[in-house]
C-alpha cells in the first residue's frame, strides 16, 4: 500500500494529490481524510473499482456507500433533479461542505449499482476537509467512500488506523492527520416533507431544527436507528465499532454512584482473571483503578468525546483488554451520535442506574 506521510498535517502536496487522483481514475482504491473519519474512496461510476471497496473492508454488499463530491454542480448528474426541494437547498447551503449526507433518488445509470446496493436512492455529501476537497477536484469524479476500516472495527480517525486494518488490501493512503469531528456524517432523508435522521452524526438534530424551524424531524430511538442505518444488512448491526474484548455501558444521574458501581464491577472482573479497561472522561479519570483507564475527551466539551472516541476504542485492543466498562453520555446534541456508536460497540449491553 502506497502511504503518503504528511506528518499529521491537514494538507497534502500537489504531487501526493496528483498520484492519489490518478490511482482513483485508474479504478484503484485510495483512503483519504475527511472532517469526520477517513474514507476508502473509489470511482463511484466504476463497478470494478467499487467492488474493491467491499472486498478490502469485508463489507456486506447490501450496505450502500456514500458518494462524495467537491461541488454542488456535480449533484444534477447523480440525482433526479425534480427531487430537490427548497428544504434540500436550505440544508445544503447550511451544512455543505460538512458532515451531512443527504439521501436522494438516484439518477438512473449515473453510478455503479453496487454503490446504492440496488436501492433507488443515493446518499451524497461534500466533505469539509482541504485534502478531501483537493482530491475530489483533481480526480474529477464522484467518489464512493465508506469509512476506511475493516467492517465491524471502529472507524479510522488517523491514517495509522487505516493502515492497521487495510494495509496490502488498498491502493494507497493520503495522510491528512487526525480527522477532527471523529464520528461519521449525519445521514438524513426527506420523505413527504418530513425529515428522517437515518444515522445520527456530526450535524446534530438541534442544528437541523435551527435551519428548518418548522420541519418535523424524526430522530429514531437507537434501536430503530440500527435498522435504518444499515437498512438491508441487519446481521451487521450489533458488531459495529466493537473492540475485541467484552464491553458494556454504565450510566446514571448520580456521578458518585456510577463511579462506585463501575469500580466494583471492574474489581470483580479483575478477580476473575480478566484484563480490565474503563472508558471515561478527563473529569473522572482519576477516580478509577483498572489495567487501562482511558480519558476520552471532556464531559464539559462533548465534541472532544466524539473526536477521541474511535481511537480510544482501538487502544483497548492494543493493550489486549478483555473486559471493558464504558461510561455513557447525555443523549443530546453530539451526544446522540456518541451514544449511538457506543451502544453498537457494546452490542447494546447497558446498565442504567
Ligand atoms: O462521515 C461519513 O459519512 C464517512 C466519511 C468517509 O464520509 N463515511 C461513512 O460511510 O461513514 P459508511 O459507508 O461507513 O456509512 C454509510 C452509511 C451506512 O450506514 C449506510 O447504510 C447509509 O450510510 N446509507 C448510504 N446510502 C444510503 C441510502 N441510499 N439510504 C439509506 N442509507 C444509506
Ligand atoms: Mg462505516
UniProtKB/TrEMBL annotation:
InterPro entries for the chain: DHBP_synth_RibB-like_a/b_dom (IPR017945), Sua5-like_dom (IPR006070), Sua5/YwlC_C (IPR038385), Sua5_C (IPR005145), T(6)A37_SUA5 (IPR010923), TC-AMP_synthase_SUA5 (IPR050156)
Cellular localization per UniProt: Cytoplasm
Reactions catalysed: L-threonine + hydrogencarbonate + ATP = L-threonylcarbamoyladenylate + diphosphate + H2O
EC number: 2.7.7.87
SUPFAM superfamilies, sorted: YrdC/RibB (SSF55821)
Keywords from the UniProt entry: ATP-binding, Cytoplasm, Nucleotide-binding, Nucleotidyltransferase, Transferase, tRNA processing
Domain of life according to the entry: Bacteria
Domain YrdC-like residues, every copy: 14-203
Biological role: Required for the formation of a threonylcarbamoyl group on adenosine at position 37 (t(6)A37) in tRNAs that read codons beginning with adenine.
Family named by the database record: Belongs to the SUA5 family.
Protein name: Threonylcarbamoyl-AMP synthase
Amino acid at each position: 500500500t502506497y502511504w503518503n506521510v504528511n506528518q499529521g498535517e491537514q494538507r497534502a502536496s500537489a504531487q501526493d494529490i496528483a498520484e492519489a487522483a490518478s490511482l482513483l481514475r485508474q479504478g484503484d482504491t485510495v483512503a483519504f481524510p475527511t472532517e469526520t473519519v477517513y474514507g476508502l474512496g473509489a470511482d463511484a461510476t466504476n463497478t470494478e473499482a467499487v467492488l474493491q471497496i467491499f472486498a478490502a473492508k469485508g463489507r456486506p454488499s447490501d450496505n450502500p456507500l456514500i458518494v462524495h463530491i467537491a461541488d454542488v454542480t456535480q449533484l444534477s448528474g447523480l440525482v433526479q433533479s425534480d427531487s430537490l426541494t427548497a428544504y434540500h437547498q436550505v440544508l445544503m447551503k447550511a451544512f455543505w461542505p460538512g458532515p451531512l449526507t443527504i439521501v436522494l433518488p438516484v439518477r438512473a445509470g449515473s453510478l455503479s449499482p453496487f454503490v446504492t446496493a440496488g436501492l433507488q436512492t443515493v446518499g451524497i455529501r461534500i466533505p469539509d476537509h482541504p485534502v478531501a476537497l483537493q482530491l475530489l477536484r483533481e480526480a474529477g469524479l464522484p467518489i464512493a467512500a465508506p469509512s476506511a476500516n475493516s467492517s465491524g472495527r471502529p472507524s479510522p480517525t488517523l491514517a495509522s488506523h487505516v493502515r492497521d486494518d487495510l494495509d496490502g488490501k488498498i491502493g494507497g493512503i493520503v495522510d491528512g492527520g487526525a480527522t477532527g469531528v471523529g464520528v461519521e456524517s449525519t445521514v438524513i432523508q426527506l420523505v413527504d416533507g418530513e425529515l428522517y435522521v437515518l444515522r445520527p452524526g456530526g450535524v446534530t438534530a438541534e442544528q437541523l431544527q435551527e435551519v428548518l424551524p418548522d420541519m418535523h424531524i424524526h430522530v429514531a430511538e437507537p434501536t430503530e436507528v440500527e435498522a435504518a442505518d444499515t437498512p438491508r444488512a441487519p446481521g451487521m448491526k450489533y458488531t459495529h465499532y466493537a473492540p475485541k474484548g467484552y464491553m458494556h455501558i454504565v450510566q446514571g444521574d448520580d456521578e458518585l454512584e456510577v463511579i462506585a458501581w463501575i469500580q466494583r464491577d471492574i474489581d470483580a472482573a479483575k478477580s476473575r482473571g480478566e484484563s480490565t479497561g474503563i472508558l471515561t472522561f478527563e473529569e473522572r479519570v482519576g477516580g478509577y483503578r483498572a489495567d487501562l483507564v482511558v480519558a476520552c475527551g471532556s464531559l464539559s466539551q462533548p465534541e472532544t468525546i466524539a473526536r477521541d472516541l474511535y481511537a480510544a476504542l482501538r487502544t483497548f485492543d492494543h493493550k489486549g483488554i478483555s473486559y471493558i466498562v464504558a461510561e455513557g453520555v447525555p443523549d443530546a446534541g453530539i451526544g446522540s451520535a456518541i451514544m449511538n456508536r457506543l451502544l453498537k460497540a457494546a452490542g447494546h449491553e447497558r446498565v442504567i442506574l
